Amino acid sequence: MFEAVAPRYDRMNRILSVGLDQGWRRAALRELDCAPGSRILDLCCGTGDLALLLPRGLRPVGCDLTPAMLEIAAAKATRHRVALPGVAGDAMRLPFANDAFDAAVVGFGIRNLPDLERGLDEIHRVLAPGGKLVILEFSRPENRAVRLGHGAWLRLAVPGLARLVASGGEPYDYLKDSILSFPDAGALARTLGGAGFSAVSYRHLALGTVAIHSGRRGRRTAPRDPAPEAENGQRTTTARGETEAARFSVSRSAARSTA
Ligand SMILES: C[S@@+](CC[C@H](N)C(=O)[O-])C[C@H]1O[C@@H](n2cnc3c(N)ncnc32)[C@H](O)[C@@H]1O
Fold it and tell me: Which residue among 46, 85, 230, 243 has its CA within the 20 to 30 Å range from the CA of 151?
């Protein structure tokens, strides 16, 4: 689905959020308190909108399952003259070594994961001890009246609007389904705690339709498995938090043209 939607993805975001989505991303990034040079994982990076808003001086790596999204992220990074290596990878089995990142951000991606707990466990694994996770995601308003209005907007307006913007594509029915079936903000916070994140907190934006969660990598109760092997059997590396074997080819052009 994201492969098909990729060329129109940014335009759809701007229209469906009535121009607010970049402000939400900026608000999420303000939760990151990272020293210059910190290694930042932008998981489910899509077209790179979140990573490209990071302050200069940090070292972001984008990771996404969909090559077409990564290609657009690489082209945008080139235009912005910033280094944004893109890694094709599945959040269920991240192609990075343990402790590879100082912080991780996930923008509108976590609700797409087939297994939330497993995804959080993988993020926990690749974060260095104390590393911060910030999640920006759609949420359900706590106020009953707003919740009803939001449900109606999602069911009645969003699929049609999306179809219009996407020129007849149906996939954006997924948007309402994935938002309505995702845990509310309190439940997500508890899941983060259960996955070993400490100092978990969240706040709502946009009348409760969006939430920003954050937490720090705390201790795990169960012993951790070794880092997964890349598909060709090559062990993940630590130098830049990337897997040489799994690195998507656009990352080389992005890094070369923006270094
Ligand atoms: C709604 S987009 C969000 C993109 C971007 N972070 C943003 O702020 O707009 C969700 C992204 O998650 C990616 N994705 C979905 N499932 C994934 C998985 N299992 N592992 C990695 N990426 C995944 C999709 O390819 C898509 O690019």
Answer: 46
